Amino acid sequence: MSPAFDDTRRWMAQGTELFTTSLSRVSDEQLAGPTDLDGWTGKHLLAHVCANAEALQHLVHWARTGEETPMYSSPTQRNEDIETGSHKDAAELREWYHRSVAALDADVAGLTDEQWQHTVVTAQGRTVPATELPWMRSREVMVHAVDLGGVGFADLPADFCAALVADIAAKRSRTPEHPAVSASATDADVAVEIPGTGDPIVVAAPLSELTTWLAGRPGGPSRTTDGNDLPGLPAWL
C-alpha cells in the first residue's frame, strides 16, 4: 500500500530541502571523494539525483499530456547519465541540481487533480498513478541526503521512516536470496516480516537505526535481539 499522497508531497519538499542543505555543506573536494555507495563518488550521487529529477519530469509530462514518455530512453541510459554526470565539474553539477529541482517542482505543481490520477510506467515496468511520483522522488532525496553526508536517518521525519521501512520490506520480500528478517522499532509502532533464506534475523532498534540497517547503510544496530552480530544488507536504493 502506497503512503498517502499529501504525506508524499510533504516529504518530497522536506527531502529536497534536506538534500539542498547537505549539498551546500559538502565541499567540491568531498564531492569528488567516495561515498558509502559502492563505486560511487559524491559526483556520481549528485548526478543520479539530478538525472532522476529529469526522468520524473518525463513521467509528469506523460501524466499531463497522455504522451508516453518513459523515464529513460533505454535500459542503459540511467547508468550512462550517472557516469557522464560524474565527470562534470562540481560547479556545473551544482547548477544542474538546482535547475533540475526547480523544473521538477514547477512541473509537479502544474498537474491538475485529474492528471494526478493518470497512469504512467516506471523504469521498473510498474504501471502506477502519477500520485506515486512524489513518493518516488521523496525516497531519492531523503535517502541520498544521508548518503551525501551531514544528516542521518534520525534527521528524517519519523513518519517517512515508517513508510520507508514498509517499502523496503516489500521490495526485499521480492528478492528471496536475502536473509529472512523479523524487525521491529523500539520507539514506534513499526514492525515488518521479510521472507528469505534461513531462520529470521530478529532485530529490535529505534526506528531511525532500523531504517538505516534495512536500507543497507552503515550506522544501524550492530546486534540481533539474541546478541549475535547483525549482518549488513546490500544497499536498497
Automatic annotation (TrEMBL):
Keywords: Isomerase, Pyruvate
Domain Mycothiol-dependent maleylpyruvate isomerase metal-binding: 15-148
InterPro entries named among the record's database cross-references: DinB/YfiT-like (IPR034660), Maleyloyr_isom (IPR017517), MDMPI_metal-binding (IPR024344), SCP2_sterol-bd_dom_sf (IPR036527)
Region described as Disordered: spans on this chain: 215-237
Any one GO molecular-function label of the UniProt entry: isomerase activity
Keyword Zinc-finger: no
Pfam families: MDMPI_N
Name of this protein: Maleylpyruvate isomerase
